[in-house]
Amino acid sequence: MTKLLKDGTAALKAVKTGDTIMVGGFGLIGAPLTLIDALTNKDVTDLTIISNNLGEKGKGLGILLGQKKIKKGIGSYFTSNRDVGDAYQRGEIELELLPQGTLSESIRAGGAGIGGYYTKTGVGTDLAKNKEEREINGETYIFEPAIRANIALIRAWKSDTLGNLVYYKTARNFNPVMATAADVVIAEVDEIVEAGELSPEAIVTPHLFVDGILLASKILTNEGVVQHG
């Protein structure tokens, strides 16, 4: 059974209203722009988006925000998009702010089957409010629960036809950990090669984590987001 998907509509078949969706990327770097574009064209609402940020104004997840399809955002760098703050002030979106390392570790824990963990990050700040505290070796820690999602939309550089993934430099960012922490994982890639062509040493995400592969039709260049292929 092939994992190759013909278009964004097929890739997002499993997405439904009310879903929690992880989206890779740091800003627009390493973001699955083709899949995000398909999501903006799908008739779904009340989404919880777990991502480092919610795109930029009118770009990436910023388009989805403008459509008022996002009920809640969980991330660490919402100020990359001024529209997020404005929507929050109007009461149109709920936000959960997590330090960047906490966001990454919570997703990793979700993928590893760990229920949560204790961290010193955030202790004594507003981010620690209503969170369990525990003293360990004389220092205060707060408990952070693991994070999982219904769907993960991620971006990789190359895939083979089985779904083994290779990433490109910093575009890797949150994508590998997100691939482990969702019920359904769809990977958008620049290139698809035959099984066996990728070096096992280069593979970061094994194919067992990946449910579908889509060839990217939108890429990020120095000139901005452009149509590709």
Description:
- The chain is α/β, with parallel strands linked by helices.
- The chain has a domain at 18-97 and 148-216: 3-Layer(aba) Sandwich (Glutaconate Coenzyme A-transferase), CATH 3.40.1080.10.
- Helices cover 19% and strands 32% of the residues.
- The protein is built from six helices and 14 strands.
- The strands form three sheets. Strands 1, 2, 3, 4, 5, 9, 10, 11 and 12 form a nine-stranded mixed beta sheet that branches. Strands 6-8-7 form a three-stranded antiparallel beta sheet. A two-stranded antiparallel sheet has the order 13-14.
- Helix 2 links the parallel strand 2 and strand 3 (47-50).
- The chain is globular and about 55 Å long.
Which properties best describe this structure?
transferase; NagB/RpiA_transferase-like; 3-oxoacid CoA-transferase subunit A; three-stranded antiparallel sheet; 14 strands; alpha/beta; 6 helices; Glutaconate Coenzyme A-transferase; 3-oxoacid_CoA-transf_A; CoA-transferase activity; 229 residues
Average per-residue pLDDT, rounded, comes to: 94
Distance between the termini: 25 Å
Unreliable stretches (pLDDT < 50, length at least 5) are none
Any guess at the CATH architecture of the domain at 18-97 and 148-216? 3-Layer(aba) Sandwich
CATH superfamily of the domain at 18-97 and 148-216: Glutaconate Coenzyme A-transferase
Question: Rg from C-alpha positions?
Answer: 18 Å
CATH topology of the domain at 18-97 and 148-216: Glutaconate Coenzyme A-transferase
Strand content: 25-35%
Secondary-structure-derived class: alpha/beta
Helix content: 10-25%
CATH class of the domain at 18-97 and 148-216: Alpha Beta
Query: Shape from CA axes?
Result: globular
- Strands, total number: 14
For the biggest sheet, the summary is: 9 strands, mixed
- The number of distinct helices, counting runs of at least 4 residues, comes to 6
Q: Helix and strand string, N-terminal first? A: EHEHEHEHEHEEEEEHEEEE
